[in-house]
Design brief:
single chain; 164 residues; mainly alpha; Serine Threonine Protein Phosphatase 5, Tetratricopeptide repeat; 2 domains; 0% strand; globular
């Protein structure tokens, strides 16, 4: 009887060890070639590329900056496909398009972002600055007026730009 009981325990232990070994192997198989955290998504990659583009542009390297803006735009388009109701993504799409001279697209993205979040100070600031660059002073002043009560940096900066 003891032999049978020991044999059953041995069999259970062996099967359990085999299952655990297979499960750990299976988990390892799914992660082959990738150590560390999962790769960044298109939103984060787009944001990083946009930061690089702005820094490059400030250094006066316009052609290199344009390439970076194009790459950022691609990432943000992918991010928008994954998450189409994100005002921040529309803001960044507007920035990239404006920097690339795609002015109609830039305005559309800014306005879409404001439809999602009418209080988004970043979009309002960028749209106001965009209108200034397009010599649309009246539209820029309307945006400035919508920021008037926020007591925010965006209002002060846009006010300074409008009053130049």
């Amino acid at each position: 009887m003891k032999k049978n009981l020991l044999f059953v325990i041995f069999i259970i232990f062996t099967i359990s060890a085999s299952i655990n070994s297979y499960a750990s192997y299976k988990g390892h198989e799914e992660n082959l070639g990738r150590e560390g955290p999962p790769p960044a998504g298109p939103y984060k990659l787009g944001y990083k590329e946009l930061e690089r583009a702005i820094k490059t542009e400030k250094k006066g390297k316009i052609k290199k900056a344009k390439i970076k803006y194009e790459k950022a735009l691609e990432y943000f388009l992918k991010a928008n496909a994954e998450n189409p109701a994100n005002a921040d993504i529309f803001n960044y799409l507007g920035i990239c398009n404006a920097k690339l001279g795609l002015n109609e697209n830039a305005e559309i993205y800014y306005l879409l972002g404001l439809e999602l979040d009418n209080q988004h100070k970043g979009i309002k600031f960028n749209l106001g600055a965009f209108y200034l660059s397009q010599k649309r002073i009246k539209d820029s002043k309307e945006i400035l007026n919508s920021l008037k009560d926020c007591g925010c940096e965006e209002y002060e900066t846009l006010k300074m730009l409008v009053n130049k």
